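Lab notebook, bench 4. We co-purified these components, and the gel suggests they stay together. Before we commit to crystallization screens, I want a quick structural picture of the whole thing.
Request: model the full complex, all chains together.
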Amino acid sequence: MRYNRIIKNRYKLIIKYIGILIMAIGGFLLLPLLALPFYPDEIIYLKAFVIPSIIFSSIGYLFYKKIDSKDESTLSLREGGIIVLSSWLVAIIASALPFVITGELNFTQAVFEATSGWTTTGLSVVDVAEAPHIFLLWRSIMQFFGGVGLVVVMLSSILHPYGFGLYNAEGRSDQLLPHVRRSTKAIMYIYCGYTISGIILYVLVGMGLFDAINHSIAALSTGGFSTRVDSLGYWDSLSIEMVTWVLMILGTINFATHFALLKGKFKIFFKNGEIRLLSALIALFVPVVIYFSLVELYDTLPNALRRGVFEIISAISTTGFSLNTFANWNQFGVFSVVILMLIGGGIGSTAGGIKLFRIYLMLKSLVWELQGFFLPENVVRENYIWRGESKLYIKPEYIKTTANYIFIYMITYFLGVLIFLAHGYPLLESMFEFASSLGTVGLSIGLTSPELPSLILWTQTFGMFLGRLEFLVIFFGIVKIIKDTKYLMPQK
Amino acid sequence: MYILIIGCGRTGSYLANLLSKEEENVVVIDKDATSFEELSAEFTGFTVEGDATEIEVLKDAKLAKADSVVVTTDDDNVNAMIAQIASELYQVPKVLVRVLDSQKEVIYKELDVITMTPTSLLVDKFKDEIVRSV
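Here is the predicted assembly.
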């Protein structure tokens, strides 16, 4: 009975926090209305945003106010998992509503679009050419908050549930400063600062303000929603592409590494394993892909180079902007992009994929293992890699966790590809499209469109969600809920 | 405020938890990584594993930037040395030291350091209780 009461109290606390997050989501829904003064004829869409906003704000308020929880204690990782899981689900449903209310998309498509936004994927079933500005802005706003994460936004501003439970549950483990609140604030400053600089740079190189805002957000959050059908290919301008390179790379770098960089610690920045691996991968794949795949498509080398650099950065940073179609690439090029999408960007950044850090750790572990064969039997070694501003000493359990993560990632990937294949899509296209979903990339070889069967859309939706929240949180959250409901059920 | 706590035993960890909950920036140093298990989930600061008598460790923990330093290791000689480094070499505004052996309190006489001796506190209290009751 006592345990029963404790669980009930904990859930009251959890629901209270969920309530606060739901209120915040209600608030976010009003942000696209900022576009109205510039596009007054889109006032007809007002109710599509205001109605869900009112619904969710009041639900959140009810949760927050009506439940009195005196429990001031800290949240564990599992409890954080429940909060993160439920608030992300609510965020996705709430964000899908405006599309449904205006009849722009059906429910499946709207959820797909919202998931794609919140997980910063960038696969889209919206007809960008027709969509009103307010919806385009809404897609970017989803990516802005999805990129940095709901919890970080919350921790940095309103509230301070004590402890790391929540912070870790959203897939972040790095700390910039010795307090979680200050760390999240620093993340928000870095993120907003880069976004604003991105907007300014885009305007300077000749993009319109509305496009600049949307593309800067989409590049930095490694989201990749574009306001044009041809994505960045629309402008066909090298300077715009170069700004995008920089923003995409910035977006894929861990915030702790940014912090070291901004403090002027260049040495530490270049010692960082993720930076090294990222540079190595770009330096390796750009010439190889150009040589084996792009030379036959483009008549001049500079053109092939431009295309190659852009798409490689877009894939590894899991952004998903593209200059042109992938349909005419040969298999070598397509598969290289699949590999890069699976590897993904930096851990603790806005990017997705397996993450550079995990790949780097596994590579290092392989090297250490091989070196071990040539060392004296009783040698004691301290293996470390640079992470953020400090050395991280690697324990064997750490490597185990990482290997397990990569294993579960690949299993999910293959299952997803199998579902595609069962629908009769070709192997390479299926691999490309699902790697793009699971890694929250957003490049498409041409499969993703509103006409896709809904099972495929749901598979992709699910993949994006798993990829963004990094599996374990979802697993923790669900298992904990099931276990606790068992206790709360009246025992016979 | 930036607070550096050296020694993560019962005292150090308890203080670190409370300060972190109060939203202060807290960094804890201990030479034994297992003692960080004493820190509760409320603690969101940094931990540094290392011997605080080594200057590299103190530099790593950014002693120069600290607003307060709390020294609570279980060795009075170590405490005295670190307290001197903090207040004399790095001019940390506030240095607080736990002194175990009350006879050693004299070491700190010349220093601008706040000392606290649990034993003396206890003895004073008990003495007062006994004397008053008699």
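Chain A touches chain B through 18 residues (CB under 8 Å). Worth comparing against the SEC data before the next meeting. The radius of gyration of chain A is 23 Å.
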